[in-house]
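Good morning,

Both structures are done.
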Amino acid sequence: MTSTATKSSYPDRPRKALCRNPFLSIKFFVFCHGLLQLSQLLVSGYLKSSISTIERRYGLSSQTSGLLASFNEVGNTLLIVFISYFGSRVHRPRFIGCGAILVSLAGFLMSLPHFITGPYEYDQSIASMFSNTTDLCQPEGLESQGNLSDTVCAPHTARENHEVLLVMFIAQALLGIGGVPIQPFGISYIDDFASEQNSPLYLGILFSVTVIGPGVAFMLGSAMLRFYVDIDKITEDEVQLTNKDPRWVGAWWLGFLVAASLVAVSAVPYFFFPREMPKEVTSGKESGSKKSEDLLSQLRSKSEQVQNLSLAKFIKHFPVVLLRNLRHPVFLLVVLAQVNLSAMVAGLATFMGKFLERQFSLTASFANMIIGAVNIPGAMVGIVVGGAILKRFQVSLKQCSAMCVLGMLLCLLVAFPLLFLGCPTQKVAGVTYGESSDFGLPTLECSFHCNCPEKAYNPICGSDGIEYISPCHAGCEVVNIDKQFSPELHQLQLHLQKRAGGLRQARDLRHRLLPPPPALRGALLRGRDPRQHIPHPVLHAHPQEHPARRQIVCRWDTVHAAENFSVDARTRSVRQCHRHHLHPLGEEV
């Protein structure tokens, strides 16, 4: 066993002096680069964890938010090939540091809309709508009173957020541009100056951070979205909502500040790393060391030849290198596989949280916690098991490819049942559903003489799973409120008009605290803010059979979209009927 060391840029400097300087250690570079990659992934991944909250805050459509989430790839895709090609002619650590500064700036810009817009204004007029008959059924002759839903929605229909979108798109473009030199230059720098034995280990650490990073971003989103969006502008006592309320908007901007600050701190050491550092010293067999020295000397001579080329010749040589790679079938197949894998992961990561929120009535914070809690252990197990298999069986390149194919097939089989999970499309009376309900009447017949405006929006949900866009469309005429229980639990008394039988008065009915589905029951008992466990009242219309008559008892749902939503955005944001909570009330109440 002999110790060997390749020639470096510091031939006359004592080895002890080199060891005392951390910026001449490849191990310290690996540590710094792992921290930087994790911080960068926090910035890019945090947007995906808070995408539904940003939609709710600024009334964005899923199409717009999806474009925003993918816009950082535009700058990255346009520049990464050229920047990577010029890597041999530049100071790679400093380029990495400059890219990190751009990423940090992008993170701070992403939080800027919170500071340039006014406070979040949610709909606080629930009680007034209860006591104001203008939002209920009005027989003919009373239509001159107007409708509250129109007055609420009209001012906000034309409200747009061009400034917010412009700032966010610029930030995403900077994020993509800043991320270009970080991974390619970091990997090449480690590969050049790490020993042959340790280089795979160092690169494996970086790839592990890349896999775990998005999960950490979702956990950060889960923590930040528990705080109210205007936590810096109002006190906690002034917040009248819990994070289970559909009007709740979490502090989406706070996570960007945290992640951007981490990137800024991680960028500092790169300006102190040299352009070249001494090759890492390792122990190995003499024959192996000799081969390594020969290979490294060949690579070094080629690198020197490239650096000696003029800039014009260097640029002219670029198409030749690009075409040579594009004609390589194995390279093209690897790129195609990575493109498809990235497309699948990007779409899943961006909208999985929103899917969980809408389909299973979860809070944004809890949905992010689920994704992060599943992603991180899964990534760690995959990395450890994969590395153990490779080391134990010394698999070849073809066997590694076969393992990748087997893993993808396993993912496909596990993901296939997702096509059949979730709730059916919500039935909205007069919008997506026009058949007869379980009450035996056409779904809109109860509001035939109510003069309900087309733009009324104040959704209620029936026990038959049919959603009505307002109490007026459900035929509710009068409501009396008894707030003796809590601000969110009301005892209601409503008159309902039915085409066949005039006015009938409903019984007094308190909100029944219906239990959550078993799958969520354990999750709802997790230790958090006690205010999160306040039950949600949902407006239901329950049929009650009596020998002489049939009546419908309406209960109000406190689902109200934020005031600054447009009509279309508010419609998209409706929390679906809690079909797993509904059941006919057959007993006397």
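Second structure follows.
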Amino acid sequence: MKNKLYLPNHLAGIKRTFIRLRFHDIDHLMKARKELQPIVKRNIEQQIDGIIELREFDIPYHSRETLHFLNIIRYDVRVEQPELIILAFDFECTKMRLKFPTHASDQIKLRQKNQ
């Protein structure tokens, strides 16, 4: 069951049932798609059965199977962090209350910090 996200009232929680079909090779996939497309077209026009659309048929078979069987391998490699040398500048300035600072009337102080 999935929400119909394309409907204007998709937040109402209306759900649909989906049938997932998996195939061992491209030939079976193509044969099933060829058989289902006219049924889907007829159902859209006449609302006879519940099958009204095909999904994910535009994704190539090998790409979809790669996604389904993708294994993520993590390597636990620890790299020693280099000693950090930090050089930071801190700008401070004076300004009139509730005004933005301007170079004409306000002083600028520059502080350099080494660590």
